[in-house]
Amino acid sequence: MDAIFETFSFALAVTAPIFLTLLVGYGLARVRLLSESFVDDASKLVFLVTLPALLFFNIFGSDAHLAEEWPLLLAGLLGTMLTVPLAWVVARPLAYGDRSAFIQGAFRGNLGIIGLAWAANAYGPAGLAQAALLMAVITIFYNIAAVALFAVYSQKARFSWRKLLKDIAKNPLIVAIVAALVAKAVGLKLPQMVVQTGEYLASVTLPLALLCIGATLDLSMLRRSSFAAFAASAFKLLIAPLVLLGAGLLFRLDAQAMAVLFLLAATPTASASFIMARALGGNSQLAANIIAISTLFSIVTASLGLALLKVNLP
Question: Which residues contact 305 (CB under 8 A, 6 or more apart)?
């Protein structure tokens, strides 16, 4: 009984602080202590400055090496690639205009903030470094999958492969990860004052980003949610993690790598899916509902899943 209690305590220690911070952000926005303009500016600051700093200095200062993490990266890529056609099959009975929102909501997770925060809480800098490398690989695939959805469902715009490559090359998160790997490979030595400044910037990333995500949540969406929104959320929180864990077993990942893989797979739907749904001319209301539902229930599914992993993969 004590072992079971310790296992669930560990899982909740990983997921609950993130969820509570989201709720704090939600509450602060409701009492107008976080304005919409502040959230917009802070979100840009996180994406362009502090999150790249977090990724760069964490990977640069860690023992993680790309060559040693290839089984984890391949497992994550393979599992993510399998979830997209599965989501497409599940979405087939839906109205044509709802499919793009459903598919994106079913596979596109919030890796950059919630995934990294969970990995850091569970395994510290080592887990965060692994999650950052995995995030880079999966994010590139997310962009490719988005282009495919544009090609099939868009009635408003066309996206080219040239634009895709340009977007990937300009993505500050991917740039920071690649720069950190190159710096490690060449044995670059940074002045301590630069490292400390980078760590100052990095330290504000996760709490600020989580407050912003919480501030943008609209839980009133839950009252207007459809069966499709619940189905997409169930796919994202249950089916997608199982598929990626299956890929992890195929590559015989160790316990920590399996847990990091699971935590990123179990993240709620990313807010980018709402933006993409609008750009595709799809059902943006459905996309917003999926984000709200998956965020609310991810605390349960991620906690239970992590506890089960810890029991079965000690």
Answer: 241, 262, 266
What is the phi/psi pair of residue 109, to 5°?
A: -95, 160
Residues 289/222, Cβ–Cβ less than 8 Å: yes
Tokens of residue 227, six digits: 């069966």
If you search the block for the tokens 């990095």, which residue do you land on?
A: 202
Place of tokens 């790997």: 181
Integer Cα distance of 19 and 22 in angstroms: 5
Contact between residue 180 and residue 55 where contact means Cβ atoms under 8 Å apart: yes
The helix-helix angle for 116-153 and 205-216 (nearest 10°) equals 50
The amino acid at 103: I
- Judged against a pLDDT cut of 70, whether residue 151 lies above it is answered with no
In one-letter notation, the amino acid at residue 38 is: F
H-only helix segments in 69-115:
70-91, 96-107
- Please check whether residue 107 is in contact with residue 236, taking contact to mean a CB–CB distance below 8 angstroms: yes
Q: Residue 116: in which H helix or E strand, if any? A: helix 116-153
* 77 to 70, 139, 146, 247, 308: CA distances (angstroms): 10, 10, 15, 9, 23
d(CA 213, CA 247): 30
Structural contact between residues 287 and 101, judged by C-beta atoms closer than 8 angstroms: yes
- Any idea which architecture 2-309 has in CATH? Up-down Bundle (1.20)
CB 54 within 8 A of CB 199: no
Distance CA(129)–CA(203), nearest Å, equals: 15
- Domain ranges, ordered by start, for the chain: 2-309
Residue pLDDT, tens place only, 29-69: 999 999 989 988 998 999 899 999 998 998 888 776 767 88
Q: Is the pTM of this model over 0.85?
A: yes
Task: Report the amino acid identity of residue 79.
Answer: G
